Amino acid sequence: MTVKHFILILILLIPTFLLAQTDFIIKDSINNRVSASSKRRQKAKEKKAHMDKLIAEEEEGALVFRKQWGLGIKLNTDGTSLFFEHGKYKTIKRTNLWWIELSEKKARNQQKQSPQPTQIDYPGVSIVSVGNDYVYGKENNFYQLKVGLGRQFRIGSKGTNNGVAVSAIVGGGVTLGLVKPYFLEIYDSTSSTGTTDIKYDNNPAAFLEPNIILGSSGFAKGLYSTKVVPGLHARGSLRFDYGKYRETLSALEVGFNADFYSDRIAIMAMNPKENLFLNVYVGIVFGGRH
Q1: For residues 168 and 88, what is the distance between their CA atoms, to the nearest angstrom?
Q2: pLDDT, tens only, 107-157
């Protein structure tokens, strides 16, 4: 066989080889897609069978889950809250709950604003200062740490597998109110730095004088002066649980809070002190069941 004949044979065989490889790749790709589709269908069937089993067990009076937990956030009409809750199923329709919640209350008339740039004159030099945003007239930051007990009652559900379960939650507990003085940085010609930090009780007139306010002193200022005020709280809500037979908990909650404290608390200097706080809220909860 001459070199020319050998090259001619290669030229004829290469397209055939490439076509065979292409056909193999296409068939392999089709087989993989069919296999993946079959796996998805199988998983869907297994999931449906598992759901049907849970529904049948519950209809016979058995507890589908034993415990649940959730993390959530509430948007209150007077602030925001973060909370953790844990529940133990007692019957099909009743769950015992406990929770811990951290929140901040804000006055409805408080409004954050930016300070005007202020020129501070030192011997031989002038500095233009732009301070932190501040809330004019704010006397105290007011935080709450709540620990409570309650019960969740299922009052209705829609559909079967992934229906919405509607529950009512009632409960209450103890609260630690944390009252931290709010500090402002103001212009002070008697100070060596030209500025000073004050709270409302130090000098009410200067605290409320907008022309000398340079801005907020920052969160850390006043921490060591935080006052603890004990109290009680009550809670009532409706929870809409999407997918009551899923191991994942995802729910929307709407409700109200009532907080009572042993001492009257001032948030804004212009507002009267209060020891009873009421609000409504909407919240979301994510967690799990087992």
Answers
A1: 15
A2: 999 998 888 776 656 666 666 667 789 999 999 999 999 999 999 999 876
**Residue ranges of domains in the chain:** 64-289
**Residue 254 near residue 284 (C-beta atoms within 8 A):** no
Q: What CA–CA distance (Å, rounded) separates 25 from 158?
A: 48
Provide the residue type at 219 as one letter.
F
Q: Which amino acid is at 188?
A: D
Token pair, residue 60, equals 């016979």
Compute the distance between CA of residue 104 and CA of residue 277 in angstroms, rounded to an integer: 12
Are 177 and 228 in contact by the 8 Å Cβ rule? The answer is: yes
Element (H, E) at 97: strand 94-105
3-state secondary structure at position 28: helix
Helix or strand or coil: residue 47?
Answer: helix
Distance CA 212, CA 79 (A): 29
- 8 A C-beta contact, residue 266 and residue 141: no
CB 228 within 8 A of CB 263: no
Cβ atoms of 70 and 282 closer than 8 Å: no
CB of 112 within 8 A of CB of 135? yes
3-state secondary structure 5-37: HHHHHHHHHHHHHHHHHHHHHHHHHHHHHHHHH
- Residues 167-193 have pLDDT tens digits of 999 999 999 999 999 999 998 888 888
- Cα torsion 176, 268, 182, 217 to 10°: value is 150
- CATH 2.40.160.20: does it fit domain 64-289? yes
